[in-house]
Structure formats: C-alpha cells, structure tokens
Amino acid sequence: MTNTPLSVRNYFKLDLLLAHSHIILRQVFKNRYRLFTNGQLWNDSLKCGKKYLANVIGKSKKFNLTTVQKTLVRVGDSNEWDLTTLTSLLLNTDRPKTLNTTQIQQLDNEDKMLIELRAIRNTLAHHASKTIDNNEFHQLWSKLVAILVVFGGSDEELNELKSDSMFEPSKQPINESNVSEVLRLNSLGSQAHKEQNFSDAITLFTKAVNITDVSNHQRAIVYSNMSASRLALHEKQVSASNMLADDDPTDQRYRALHDAKQARMLSSTSWQGHFRVGKAYAALNDHEKAINSFERALALDPNSIKIQEAINDSQQVLCRQSRHEHLDPRGQPITMQEHLNEMQQKYGHDPQQIRMGHELLGKIDPSAADVIMGHKYEHGDIDIKQNHEQAARYFAKAANQGNAEGMYNLARLTDRGLGVNKDSKFATTLLEKAAEQSADHPKFKGLTNVGVAESEHSLGLRYAEGVFVQKNLSTAAQWYQRAVDHGSAEASNNLAILYLNGTGVEKDLQKANQLFELSARRGDPKAMLNLAWGLLEINDLEMAKIWFDRACEAGNLYAQAKRNDFESALRQKQQIIENHPSSALQAMEEATAFSDLITAIQFENSLSNDSSVYDLNVLNEHAKRGSQTAEKMYNALRHFHNALHLITKSESLTIQQENIFIHEYAQCCRIEHTVAEIPNKNIERKIERIIDRVFQRCCNDSNLINSQLDEDVRVCYVVLHVGSPKINLRFLNSCKQKYPKVVFFLEFSGAMNVMLGQFEAAVSDANAGLKIDPNYYELLFMKATVFVVLEKELDEIINAYQTFLTDAPRDHCKVPESYYSMACRYVECSDDDDLIEETYKQGEEAEKIQLPCFLPYKSDNKMALKAAFEDECSPDLIPVLVPDRRSRLTDLHRIDIFKRHRQWSASMSSNKNAPIGITQKPRVKQPTSKSLIGLKSISLREINPTKDHVYNGYVLSVTIIDEALSWKPSIHLVIEDENYDCDHMVVYDFQDTQGKHLINEVFTIGTKMSIINPYLRIGANDGKPFIRVDDFSSIIFQHESERVVNMCRCCGQSNASHVCSRCKRARYCTKECQIMDWKLYEHKLICIDRSYREKSPKFDEPVAQKFDDQQEDTTQANQLRLPLIPIDAAQNDTGAQTSNLFPLAPAYKEKNVPLGSSVWMASNSLHLLMKRNNHLCLLDRNLDVVKKTPWSSNENVIDICWCDTLDQFFVLGDEDSFVSLHRSTMARKTLPVDPNIKLLCCTCSNSKLYVSNRKGGSNIFIYSLLPNIVLVKQWNSPATCTIEERIEYMRYSNEKLALIINNISHNMRLELRCESTLEKLWSLNLGNYMSPFYGYHICPLPADEWLVIAQTNSRLLHIAPDGTIKASIVYEPRCCSAALFGPDVLAISTDYRLFLHKL
Questions:
Q1: Is 1174 exposed, middle or buried (0-12, 13-18, 19+ CB in 10 A)?
Q2: pLDDT of the residue at 887
Q3: Residues with Cβ < 8 Å from 340, sequence gap 6 or more?
Q4: Residue 845 above 60 pLDDT?
Q5: SS3 615
Q6: CB contact set of 1005 (below 8 Å; sequence gap of 6+)
Q7: Nearest C-alpha neighbor of 533 from the set 504, 567, 510
Q8: What pLDDT does residue 967 have?
Q9: For a disulfide at 1047, which of 759, 844, 1006, 1131, Cβ 3.0-4.6 Å?
C-alpha cells in the first residue's frame, strides 16, 4: 500500500479511528444500560437483545433503525453493532426519571459529544471521493480524539493510530506449516465454491480461519471467501424455497456480513474486505451502507471495474427504492392475458380481437410482432411460459430491425440481467439509439413510435441519478424534456421535481406545478399525489382532495398509506379557512401562493438527496479554489446540516440537544442565512416549537437572560419569521436594545424596514451597523439599494455601490447586480454611452465567476438595460396581454391539446394516403336528456382524465376555441370551460353529407354549448382522454347572442381586430397573441392560403375515410392501413412552397464588415454569428454586436452552423480547430473530433452533427448531440462520392443533406441525399453557374427549397424541392454567403458589407 495516495491514507486513518470508537462506545452503552436498569448487566446475549428491542425500541418513536440494525440488536451481540446503531441507541433511549442533576448533566454533555461524533461519521461516510487533505485530516482527527477521550479513550493510544503502520505488513509470528495448511484449505474451499458445493466450502473456510500463527492478511482472504460462499448459499436456498426474510439472524447473509467485517478488520487497507461487506449489505437490501463500503473499496483499488459495477448496481436499486418503484401498481408483474382483461375492463377492448390483430401485425410489421412475442415471453401468456431468455431474443430481433420499442425493452432486461448478461453500457447504447428515432411511428402515420419517449425518460433517470453515467442534472432535464414532449407521464413528474428544486434547470415553481398536472393528467399516480399536496399548500382544497383520491384510486400504495396524514392536513386547512374572515384568508393565500409551492410534499419520487440548490461538495470545491463566498456558504451549510440532522433523526430532543440545535442553526444564520432551506412544513413547525421552548427557558431562567443561548435563539427566531416583517421588526427592536453591538440584528432590522417601505429607517439601521463594522458588506449593499429607491444624488448612489464592491468578495452574488444597477442609474442621469456599456460589461464579467448556485443569474436591472440597448419597445406595437391571462395560456396541457389537434389537421390535409380506421364502439352508452333541469354542473378539472367514465346527472358547459376538423365519421373540436381548462371533444352520429355544414355553420369558433352526461373516453389506441358525444341530443347550444364573436385564436377575447395576413381566418387581439399562437400552439401547421377551399368544392369533404379519430383506432386498425384516392391539395396550396424569392426586396438594414472578417455566418431567429477581425461576434437583428469572443486573426473561419438543441454554434477554422460556442455565455469548447481528419464543412440537425473532410472520396462523419457529442456513424466513398470527387459544402434540412460535389474535371453539381440512408433524391449540374475555384454556399429555405450562392459571379439560384432551378439573379455587390435570419429575413454577406432583406 506504499503507493496509496496520502489523501486516501488520511481517510482510512480516520476510518480506523472511528472503528476504534466502537470499542469505547460499546462500553458506554453497557454503562448506561446498567445505570438505566438499576444495575442490570448487558451480557451480549440473545435474551438481552430481545428484551431491549421489545421494551425500549418497540415502545419509542425516536428510533429510526433499518431492518438489519434491528435484527442485530435483537441478537444482542454489541460487537456486531456499527457506529450508527450505537449512537442511535445512546441518543434515543429514554432516561429514567430517578437520575440526579449530576448524572443528567453528564449525560447531556456526552450526548453533545455523540452528536458531534455522528456528524463526523456521516461526513466521512458520505464523502464521495474517500480522500481527505491534510488540513481537514488534522482538524477531524483532533475533534475525534477529543471526543473519544471524554468517553474514556487514551489520548496516547488513539494517536498511535495516526501512523502509517496500518498500510504496512503487520509483524506477526508466522508458522509456515500452518500457513501451508491455510492455503490448502482455502484452495479446497475455493474449488468447492466453483462447483457450487457452498456448504462444503464454508466448512473448509471455517477450519482455515481457526488456524493460528498465520498473517492477518491471509486470514482476511479466507474470511472474505467464506462470506462470498455464504451469500451464494443463501441465493441457492432462496431459489429453492422462494422464501426471503430480512430479519432472521440465522440467515446466511448475516453470517456473511460478520465474516466480511472480520476480513475488513484484519486487513482494513485491502479492498476485498470492504467489497465483501458491501456485497453482504446489498444482499440484506441495505444499499446505502453497501455503496459506502464499495466506495471505500474503490478508493483502495480505483481501477476495479468489478467494484464500480457493484456501486452502480446498488445505486440503481437505491434509486428505485427512493422512487418507491416497488409501490407503483404499473410495475407489478401480470401475464399477457391479465393485461388484455384489464384493457377490456378499462377501455372496452375485446381480447380476442386484439390477439387476431397480433397475428395480422406479423404480416405487416414483423419487428412489431417480435416485440409482442417478447412481451408474451417476459410476462407469460395462456400458452407461453415465462422465459426471460426467449423474451430477450425476440426484443433483440426487433431491435436489430430498428424497432425502438424492441431496443427499449432489450435495454430494460440488459440493465437487470434478465435473460441476458447484465451490461449497463450496452443498455445505455440501446436507449440512445432508440431515443435517436422519430417520435412518430415510421410506418403508421399519426401513431406514436413506442420506445422513444420511454428511452428518453430512462436516459433522464440515468443522468439524474448518476447511475452508469456521470451525474448531470442539466443533461437529465434535457432528456426529460424530450420525453415530456413525446408524451411521457413519468418524465413530466421527474422534470417537475427538477424545476421545483431548481436543480439542473432554473427554479420555476409555476412550471413545476404545470408539469405535475400534465403528468397527473397523463396518468402518473406519483404526480397525482405530488399535485394533491401542492394544491393543498395553495389552499385549493377541493382539487387537492380530488387528486389525492385519484392517486389512491390509481393504486398509489404510498398515497393510500398517507391518507390519514393528508386528511388531517386537509381538516386543519379547512378549520383555518372557516375561522378566518375573507380578508385574512386572502392574505394567507397570498403568503403561500407558489413561493412555497409543494415544499410540504412528501415526495415519493425524489431523484436526489440534494433537494437544495446549495451542494456542500460543490461549495467545498470552490472554497478550496479560493472563493470566499463559497467558504462562507460552506461553513454555514455545515452548521445547518448538523442542526437538521439532529432534529430529523429523533422525534423529541433533550434540553441539551435543543440547546445544541439552536446554537448550530444560529451559527448558520449568522454566517449566511439563505442556505438554511427548511425541507418542509412539518420540520418548520418542529423548529418553531423548539425555538419557543428555548426562548421561554431563557426568559424564565435568570442565568440565561443575557447568555449566548439567549442571543442564539433570538437569531433563530428572526430568520424563521423573516416573512412577517411587522412582527419581526417589533421583536428586533427589543433585540437591538438588549444586544446593541450585534450587527446581525441591525442588518435584519434594516431588511424588515425595506420590506415595509420604511426606507429612511433602513438607512439608519445600516449606518448604525456600519459604525460597529465599517466593512460589513451586506449592509453596504442594502444602503446602496435603498439610496436608489430614495432617489439620492447619482454620486451618492455610485459611491455607495463602489464602497460595497471594494469590500465584498469578487464572486459575491450581489456584485453583478451592483454593476447593472449603476448602469441603469447612468442611463437615467448620463449621456455617456461608453460608461454605460463599460459598467454593463463589468456586470457580465462578474457573472462569469459566480458560484453555480447563483446561475443562471437573474437581474431586473439587466433586463431593463438589454431592452434599452435593443430598442425592443415600439410605439406602433398593439397592446400586450394582461398578466392574469398568461398563466393559462402557457399551461402545458393546453399547449399539448392545441398542438396535437393542429398536427392532426395538417397531417390529414397534406397526406395523400390518409389512413383508414375502424370504429371502436364506446365502452358504455351515454344516456341522453332533453333538459338541463336537475343536472349538476361539472367542470373539466372535476372530470377524471385517467378514467373511462360517463358522468350521469351532470352537465358540462364549454366554448369551442379552435377550428373544427371533420372526417368520416367524427368531428374534432377543442373546447374550453369556464375555468379556462381545455380538452379534446369528438362528436359522432351525423350523416356524411352534414360534415361541411356542421363545421362551417354549427361547430364554429366561439360557439357555446352544454354537454349532457359528458363521457370521458380514454382513446383505444394512444390512451389520450377526450370528451365523446355519440348522440346530438346530448348537446344543447346556447343562444347565438352568447357566442364569442371574432374570438382571439389564442386568448379567447372577443372582438379581436387583427387578422392573420396569410390564412385570413385566425383573429388576434394583440401581436403577442399572434406570436404565441404561431410558436406555442403551432398555428403555422394550419396557416395556409384558404383560397383553395373556394376553388375546390371537395376540400371541405372528409379528406380521408377515417372511421375514427386517432384515439379510437383499434389494435386491428394498426395492422392494416389502406390508401385512398389522393386529393392533390398541394398543387393549389401556396403555403406548401416558398413564394418566388426574386426579385429580392431592397435591403432594409446593412452594416459594414471590417477587413479581415469571414464571409461565413450562421444564425438562429435572434442572433447571427460571424468572424469580425480577431473576434467571433454575435449580432442581433439590428446587426449590432451584443457579444464577442477572441478568435485568432491568422485563422480563417471556413464554416459555421447553428445547433438549436444545444443552443450552440459550431465553428470550423482552417487551422483544423473545431469548437462549439454557447450562444448565451459565448463559452468555447473544443469538439472531440480527430484533428487529423482535416475537416472542410459542417452542418447540424436536431440530434446529429455532420462533418466532411477535404480529401478525395470525402467521408461524412456523424456525431450524436445528446447526451454527449460522440461519433456514431461514418459514411465513406463511394456512398458519399467517388474517389476522384470531393464534398465542398454541405447543409442539412428536414431529414435531407444537400451536398455540393466537385470532381477532378471541376464539374460542380448539387445533390440532395436522404439523411438516414444517403440515398440520392436528385442531382443538379451547376457547371453553367459556378466555378470550382471560388467559394460556394447553400442556404436551406422553407418547404424543402434551397438557395445556392456562387461567389464566382455573385449568382443566387433558387432551387425547387424537385431539384429544378426556379429562378436566378446576380447580386450586387458580390455575394459570398447567405443565411435565414428568422422565418422572414435573409442575411447576405458580401466582401465588405452585410445586408438584411425581407422575404
């Protein structure tokens, strides 16, 4: 072990010292036991253990022991108890009331030491790297020795453990013959183990360990092997009897744990012992301790794949347990027949028809049939016995044919080693391949490609939990978002948790709530419970109760177990509301609204223990790099963790423990109170009670009136009640009188005065504090901000900020805000643009060194400055939306409804081979009524979106808010109720000839109607809910006078005066509504020139003989799709192609391009990137430089492309540099591409990066974008081009690659290739238009059209989708390149200028 790094040796020395503490604490326990039981002795017997478990632990709620710990306590042998068990027993055992004052004080002092000892143990146990630097080592060592000396340890003996002797071979008397015998017995035992004669192996190993005069290391090896044999024997016994009991002390697993601990004790610096302890804990289902032991083993053998795989396995199980996956009813194993019976019960499917559909499917889509067979073998069926190996074979067969569902299911089995070898890396690869596919089914248009969203969600879980991959919450959020977009309920719930906690994404409580609701509506029982707690928190008691009941009804076992807790909380809320007048209730709702959203949720699906945005390890790392802010926050967080750990491990605390808690919490608040994020309301109430009790003691005890404890508890009270400024200010006045030199109270008094608008009083508090401590920079910042509000003179404000900036650490979170505030003051009071820009840039520079917990940085001043710089405000703009409408317009479910409705409309309008379906009869019949009398009103939110059900005796009042779609035999609507909730509605039972009349005259936008006995139908094919009407008599239309006339297509306002200039049908009340409808609701899908309707009388007839909607396709419909006679709408649809580009409109904006700039550029809708002099510059739509980063003036840029997925530009230089450039931060990163490839051009899709090299017979290299940029495919000659040819330029658009190819004869051609197969779609000879010796460029246009630029003669060619030239012009001055700058602007770069043209 001489090569063991010093930091690792430090860790294991501390670990050895903690192990030695077991001996000392065992004696402390026995002494206390004797004291508490009137002289009875603890003799480590089974009798003692059983009695203690029953009478002490069983009758107290303080203990929080695992099953393994309880079992070992029951055995009674204190030698088997670990430090966690010992400290729990010592701290939580109730004391007898007969103790005298001296005994109580002694026990209180010991408990204080025990709490500190446990905190050190937890710090070491959860130390991910298992490395301790010298400074931390000496601090922890001194603390531990001091504690153990208090408990009777010898200072001299303990410090002897500090030497490196544990890493050196022990000097023991060795008997060589005994050694030979041990080696022989160990060899025989190992052979018996291989032959699966585990009992014989254990017998041989037992004989070996009883032989004396052999080295500890050799005995440790034998104990380790014996532990492995015991675990193998246990597995064999379980598989034979199918019995599993975790609390049986005679279980081989407990004996294996004992043997493993013996091995670890005999050779604590050998990885085998730690590894075996981990395996024993994993077998006992205590995976947290297993991971701790595996990590120790890995620290001793960092390159061991076996240890890393064990860590991954335990982490995977632990994450599943934390998600309560075992309680999820959807994960319970059921046979195929049971599944079909469940579908029949829920949706009315005939199992026999589905089985017939399976047979048909084999003829149409063999890979899908293989997936079905895989499911049958995985779960078992009527005539098929469960067989995971066969299931894996069928899934693999489907996966090899490119089936995403096959890939996903094979990854599932591979992850768990079911039927195949366990291989996490291969499973990850399968998931990534499945996630690369389109979310739409490749063969059946309109259907979901099952396996894509599931794989995306699984990848999100991997990155969120750090299992099999490096933990990265930002990447997890990206995968979750993709899965959410593709319909995943589970991903919506998990992404909501990230937004709730602000981990991996910017904290957004409103979005978290929307995602919880979206997930719940999609049927996730976990999200239903989370949503219920969240609604309860914001006092929406009715919906909270409804969603909680839905969670229980959906089979959420955790919700069922927590029903009493929920109903108790609900009753408390109801009592508060009943006992408060409306004004008080309104204040209560405002206080709790969304700022505290769902903090009381007992999340059953917490993906990380790091619920806070403040990560202790991250802060520690930044502190080591010299960050004063991180060091300060790290110290505060350590105190807060100590305090929190104290109150979460015990139901009640002793007086001494309460005093310790107050001190730790107060220390945190003094240093940095913002890190003290209390996890939930229950803990907050517990803290309040402790503070009240301690404060009463301080008031009643004359010895405590002016004590440190009194000051501490006042600090805690102030921080806990920061949300009640009036009450807090009165309390702070008394604190300032009692402790006039304590700056903390002056700081918070100033803060309360600011909250109450008493700004002069705040300045007075700040000045008083600064007299005591002139460098107290928190007060300096407060004073500066209050000066702004008081409109002090500019010099006074600037001086105040400058004083703060002088004293505050450079990475203090208020440093950027100070610069932005000063810049705003300059805007108001100065015309010095250079000074404003310089100060603003100082703020941006300060942002770059902010800690991760403060990023992305938020500043209203910064937003105001950006608006001023970019001149975003215009007097000609029509009014914007009022704020109270925005929340519902951005609701994720609403967006999903509109997008699916319009995507289906676009698909049906453009698909010449529209699918035919077969009507699935409704599961139940919807009763009718001719009158609304006696019916109860119901809203969409009260209708359960997860249950197929008719709501008899109810009436649903709605408004139609989007264009009706008609195709035989149903009319599709989007409806909205009085709460602004919306959903799909489908109407049946009308004659074919009525379709046109009904959608044009009856079911029009703005029409209001009532649905009697509404039927919530769950779609037979995709499981999507919608309101179904089978009888027209169930609809009662309101009077025409109630109709919303000229309804805004986005927000629903009446009398919208603005009309879409393209389709002439959609109306909008504001420009913002039009933009939102175009972007969020994808109006662009249906925005076409409607003149075609007037030209073609058949257009309004059903565009396809579809006998049902997307939801209502039966399984049989999936098997057979028949094309109809196509309706060639595209010929008359001017929206299907780009109108003629030429002649170009005159440039409306232009800008000089400095010498030395590059002609190449790339853009998104907001910014344009190009090289100017020695910088890469980001230009806004006014062509002003908003950001820039250095780029060598000697290196030309030869290509740039934009990646929307990563929000990055890819830049290729002629010196073989290839970098990514983040748009918002301009952070630059070299891409993992071999520089020897000699790249020439690059382009990007939403999922891949394509690059080509300069050689003859060019290659095309394809890289995945997520989760990392990795080479996934390579096309070579002749698939790309012949060996005499070279790809000179390349651009991607709409699953196609456009290539400019130059051959040895210098004949140029443009070829369009299929991206996935590289199949040539068409080829166009460019020889007459461009020279091979000059530059050339391709710019994709909408509707599969292209713009080709020839630098030789400055010619622009407009290429049609079929490869023909629509038109060409010569551009003056000489054109070099072009890029679309948003949907309607073409940017053209010339030798010296940049022009923008409106299209």
A1: middle
A2: 65
A3: 349, 351, 354, 355
A4: yes
A5: coil
A6: 960, 961, 962, 963, 1044, 1047, 1049
A7: 567
A8: 63
A9: 1006
| Nearby residues of 239 by Cβ (< 8 Å), 6 or more positions away | none
SS (H, E, C) 510-562: HHHHHHHHHHHHCCCHHHHHHHHHHHHHCCCHHHHHHHHHHHHHCCCHHHHHC
| Rounded CA separation 1087/1075 (Å) | 13
Predicted confidence (pLDDT) per residue in 322-374, tens digit:
777 766 767 677 888 888 888 787 777 788 888 888 888 777 889 999 999 99
Residues in the chain: 1399
Identify the CA nearest to 452 among candidates 408, 501, 414.
408
On the question of pLDDT at 1323 being above 50, the answer is: yes
Name every residue whose Cβ is closer than 8 Å to that of residue 1286 and which is 6 or more positions away in sequence: 1240, 1254, 1255, 1256, 1257, 1258, 1301, 1302
Q: Residue 1391 is encoded by which pair of tokens?
A: 């030798």
Query: Are the C-beta atoms of 717 and 695 separated by less than 8 Å?
Result: yes
Asked if 672 and 813 count as a contact pair (C-beta separation under 8 A), the reply is no
Which pLDDT does position 1292 carry in this prediction?
Answer: 94
Report helix, strand or coil for 179.
helix
How far apart CA 824 and CA 869 sit, in angstroms, is 11
Instruction: Taking residues 182-200, report their average pLDDT.
Output: 94
User: What is d(CA 490, CA 516) in angstroms, rounded to the nearest whole number?
Assistant: 10
Q: For position 1125, what pLDDT does the model report? A: 22
As a whole number of Å, the CA-based R_g of the chain is: 36
Q: What is the distance between the alpha carbons of residues 566 and 550, in angstroms, rounded to a whole number?
A: 13
Which residue, among 217, 324, 225, has the nearest Cα to 268 in the 3D structure? 217
Largest CA distance in the chain: 108
- Residue identified by tokens 């703020």 is 843
| The pTM of the whole model exceeds 0.70 | no
Contact between 863 and 1049 under an 8 Å Cβ cutoff? The reply is no
E-assigned strand segments in 1164-1306: 1168-1172, 1175-1179, 1185-1190, 1197-1203, 1208-1213, 1218-1222, 1228-1230, 1239-1244, 1248-1253, 1260-1264, 1270-1275, 1285-1293, 1296-1303
Distances (CA, A) of 302 to 210, 271, 274, 276, 446: 32, 10, 13, 16, 50
Query: What are the C-alpha distances in Å from 1193 to residues 565, 868, 1197?
Result: 68, 32, 10
Local confidence band at 748 (pLDDT 50, 70, 90 cut-offs): very high
72-112 pLDDT, tens per residue?
Answer: 999 999 988 988 899 989 988 989 989 998 998 899 888 88
Side chain identity, residue 350: D
How far apart are the C-alpha atoms of 431 and 60, rounded to whole Å?
47
Does residue 1060 surpass a pLDDT of 50?
A: yes
Backbone angles phi, psi at 1210, to 5 degrees: -110, 130
State residue 250's pLDDT score.
72
Question: What are the tens digits of pLDDT across the range 920-936?
Answer: 666 667 677 666 677 89
CA pair distance 240, 245, nearest whole angstrom: 14
The residue to which tokens 């529209």 are assigned: 914
C-alpha span between 938 and 915 (Å, rounded)? 35
The whole-angstrom separation of Cα 30 and Cα 766 is 56
Six token digits for residue 241: 């009897």
Mean pLDDT of all residues belonging to the chain: 83
* DSSP helix/strand/coil, 1367: strand
Residue 987 has pLDDT above 50, yes or no: yes
Q: What pLDDT, on the 0 to 100 scale, is given for residue 910?
A: 59
Residues 923-981: pLDDT tens digits?
667 677 666 677 899 999 999 999 889 999 999 999 999 988 766 678 899 999 988 89
| DSSP 8-state secondary structure symbol assigned to residue 1033 | G
Q: Which of 949, 984, 950 is nearest to 970 (CA)?
A: 984
Quick one: which of 1193, 1246, 1239, 1205 has its CA closest to 1219? 1239
